[in-house]
Write a structure and sequence with these properties.
Helix content is about 80%, strand content about 5%. By secondary structure, the protein is mainly alpha-helical. The chain has a two-stranded antiparallel sheet with strand order 1-2. A hairpin with a 2-residue loop joins strand 1 (about 30) and strand 2. The longest helix has about 55 residues, at about 60-110.
Length: about 110
């Protein structure tokens, strides 16, 4: 039984998306001397390389991939960026989040 990986990946957009993520995370973890690319750059490099090989995904999978890429960037930058603000103004952010959830829930209930 022969499996053509190119046809398999071109036919299944979600599989291609998660293969790019997995390979990118592996590439991002590799260390060459004192240089390590990081998760976000690894995913970006793998997606560019596979794009050059004419792999493509539909719009829905593209949006999902973009959301996951932004998530990876946020996971890397989040602790250094948000924790100082959260410890200083955490109660204000919590109240803002609760107000937003309440507003969205109220709008959703009103629509029905």
């Amino acid at each position: 039984m022969n499996i053509n990986v190119a046809e398999l990946l071109n036919g299944n957009y979600i599989l291609l998306l998660f293969v790019v993520l997995a390979l990118g995370l592996c590439l991002g973890k590799l260390r060459l001397g004192s240089i390590q690319l990081g998760n976000s750059i690894g995913v970006l490099v793998v997606s560019l390389l596979l794009g050059q090989q004419h792999f493509s995904i539909n719009t829905d999978a593209l949006n999902l991939g973009f959301m996951l890429f932004i998530f990876c960037v946020g996971v890397e930058a989040g602790p250094e960026l948000f924790f100082p603000f959260f410890f200083r103004d955490g109660k204000n952010y919590l109240m803002l989040a609760l107000v937003m959830v309440g507003q969205c829930a109220g709008d959703r209930l009103r629509v029905r």
